[in-house]
Amino acid sequence: MKVLTSVVTGMVLATGLVYSTGAVAEQQRVDEQLQVPADVFVKVENMRGEVSIKGTADSVARVEGVLDEYATGFIFALDGSTLTIAVEMPQRGNFSGNDVTELEIWLPQSAELTLEGVSSDYAITGFNSDVRINTVSGDITAKELQGDIRLNTVSGDVFASEVGGRVQLKSVSGDIDDRNGNATVADYSTTSGDIRVATPATEVRVESVSGDIELTLSEVKELAAKSVSGDVEATFSLANNGRVTANSVSGDVELAIRGELNAKLSAVVSGGGSIVNRLNEQRAEESRWGVGAQLKSTVGNGSGVIDVTTMSGDIHFIKK
Predict the structure, then answer these.
(1) Shortest CA distance to 209 belongs to which of 225, 197, 226?
(2) Which residues of 32-71 are buried (b: 16+ CB within 10 A; e: fewer)?
(3) Taking 90 as the threshold, does the pLDDT of residue 163 lie above it?
(4) pTM, full prediction
(5) Has keyword Signal (predicted)?
(6) Least confident among 151-155, 213-217, 291-295
(7) DSSP one-letter string for the chain
(8) Contact 135, 118 (CB under 8 A)
(9) Is the distance from CB of 139 to CB of 121 less than 8 angstroms?
(10) Which of 64, 82, 99, 292 is disulfide-compatible with 69, CB 3.0–4.6 A?
(11) What is the pLDDT of residue 26?
């Protein structure tokens, strides 16, 4: 049975839709709550504005704040174990007004969340469940999450702190920053933004096209870092039988390695860059054609693999 706790429409909001005729839209205030299952699945939809979501120890869902001035309605509905929280907007329109949605939401910390937005910022904290966030031009801020975490924005930034489990952070033109987490597997990608990460994840994948990559890692079993025109900097220790690959076209690659290293090294510069090796006495061999260089060496028992390539950038191996 569907329990529809609150659907806000009303004449004020309906009148506000006729903004092309000069009608003045007004913001509607909401303050609702209801009992929900501890493992409730929550869907949140908001076109514009800011939404803050916090996990609590209670089996209660609560929302308060103001709706977008162009909103046509608000849904706060529980259907079985699925809770829908949605700000309804017209299908079409030039939403140029400054009075956007501002909501605070409290949910059980074990709730599973899927959040959708257009130009909507999301801030979420305190959940030990799976979280999915997709927004177009908004920023995403996440803190104290544990689960399967997937945060995706097109032109916004992604900020994560104390996020663990399986972590996937993506942005097209924004930056990605992940600090103080406890992820086991981490995946980061951006097109034109920078990526700065400090994580204990043992499996890490990082990719950027024109942005720089800066990684501070613990002991890695597998690391794959790729950039086209940006630089790649990574500090880590390598597990036995671990594998590291780093690639850049025109950027530099610097790998700073802590502790005992057992790996086969392979480095290739095919253009005008150079290779600097501080891990052992082996030096790179320059191409007999005068352009490019390569290095092949074994450090320790050679159980792991470190493979680095760049076209016109420099490669540096450093012992920390």
Answers:
(1) 226
(2) eeeebbeebbbbbbbbbbbbbbbbeeeeebbbebbbbbbb
(3) yes
(4) 0.90
(5) yes
(6) 291-295
(7) -EEEEEEE-HHHHHHHT-GGGTPPP-PPEEEEEEE--TT-EEEEEEEEEEEEEEEESSSEEEEEEE--TT--EEEEEEETTEEEEEEE--SS-----S--EEEEEEEETT-EEEEEEEEEEEEEEEE-S-EEEEESS--EEEEEEEEEEEEEESSS-EEEEEEEEEEEEEESSS-EEEES-EEEEEEEEESSS-EEEEE--SEEEEEESSS-EEEEEEEEEEEEEEESSS-EEEEEEEEEEEEEEEEESSS-EEEEE-S---EEEEEEE-SS--EEE-SSS--PEEPTTSS-EEEEEEETT--EEEEEEESSS-EEEEE-
(8) yes
(9) yes
(10) 99
(11) 77
CA distance 281 to 260: 16
